Amino acid sequence: MKVFTALYDKALVWAQHRRAPSILAGVSFAESVIFPIPVDVMLAPMAIAQPEKAFRFALLTSIFSVLGGIAGYFLGMLAFEPLVLPALEYFGYQDSFVLAQNWFAEWGFWVIFLAGFSPIPYKVFTVTAGVLAIAFLPFVIASIIGRSMRFFLVAWLMRWGGPIMEKHLRQHLDTIGWAIVALAVIVYLIVR
C-alpha cells in the first residue's frame, strides 16, 4: 500500500504553492502547541522542491515552532485545568505528561533541548514546562537551539541530497513511513 508515497507527492505539489511558507509557519506554530503531525513532513518536501530556499524555510520553521512552544508554555502555566488537562485526556497524552514531569525533575533544561531536537512530542514538554513554571529564559534558549538544529539539519539534508536524496527517499518512503508508525506504536505500548 503506497500511502506515504501518495502523501509525499501531494506535499511536493503543495510545496510549490505561493502560500506554502505561510502554511509552513502556521503548521510549525500549531505543531508546538497541539497539532499531532511533525512539521518535518512539510519542511522536507519544500526544501527538496526549492533547495535555494531550504535554509529560509528552516529558519521560518524554527521561529514559528519556538513561538508555538512559548504559547504552549503559557497555555500550561495559565490554563492547565480548563484547557490542557482535557486535551491531554482527549489525545491520550496523560502518560507522556507524567513522563515529561519526571524528566523535568531529573534533567531540567536538557529535556527541552532533547524534545526540541528529537521526535519526542515537543508540545507535551512545552506545556509541561509551563505547568511546572520552569525558568522561562532557559526554556526559550533550549527551544531555539533544539528546534533550529533539527530543522536546519532536515533542510541541509534535503538541499545537500537534492535529486539523489529525493529518488532514494521516494523509493523507500512507504517502508520508512510504516516503520515509523510501527515504532511509534511500540514506544506507546512500552510507555503505557
TrEMBL record:
Q: What are its GO cellular component terms?
A: plasma membrane
- The answer, when asked if rRNA-binding is one of the entry's keywords, is no
Question: Which Pfam families did the record assign?
Answer: VTT_dom
UniProt-listed InterPro entries: DedA_domain, VTT_dom
Recorded superkingdom: Bacteria
Keyword tags: Membrane, Transmembrane, Transmembrane helix
| Signal peptide residue numbers | none
Q: Which stretches make up the VTT domain?
A: 41-157
Q: Which segments cross the bilayer?
A: 55-80, 100-117, 124-146, 175-191
Q: What is this protein called?
A: VTT domain-containing protein
Which organism is this entry from?
Aliidiomarina haloalkalitolerans
**Taxonomic classification, please?**
Bacteria, Pseudomonadati, Pseudomonadota, Gammaproteobacteria, Alteromonadales
